[in-house]
Here is the input.
Amino acid sequence: MDILKALSDKNRLRVVSALSRFDELCACQLVELLEVTGATASRHMGILQKAGLINSRKDGRWVYYRLSRPAGSDPLFQWLEKSLANSAELNADFHSLEKIVGITREELCRMQRGETCCPK
Here is the structure.
C-alpha cells in the first residue's frame, strides 16, 4: 500500500521515472527538475524512501538518490515503464535532465540558493 500511495503524487512519479533513466541523481538535480523548494523535494524523497522505492547516500554535503526495487515490485515497475513510455511530460523531464546533469552541483546550488551557497 505504501508503494501505491507514494506513486500517487505526480512529482514522486516523476522522480521514480527520472531515477529509472538516470540511475542516480543528486538532490539538487531533482529540485531543479521538479522546480520546487528543497524542503518540498525532501518531503517527497522521504515518502519514496519510506515506501522502499528509493535509497539515498550522502557524499560530503551532497545527497544522492537511486531507485530501489522492493521485492515483488518488478511487475509494477514493468507496468509503470510501459504505461508512461509515451508521456509527454516525462519525455520533457528526460530532455530537461540531460541539461541538468551537465551542470555542476556547485553551479546548481548557486542557481538555486544564491552565491552564498557555494563560494567559488
About this structure: The first helix runs from residue 2 to 7. The chain has a mean pLDDT of 88. The chain has seven helices and three strands. Residues 107 and 118 are 8 Å apart (CA to CA).
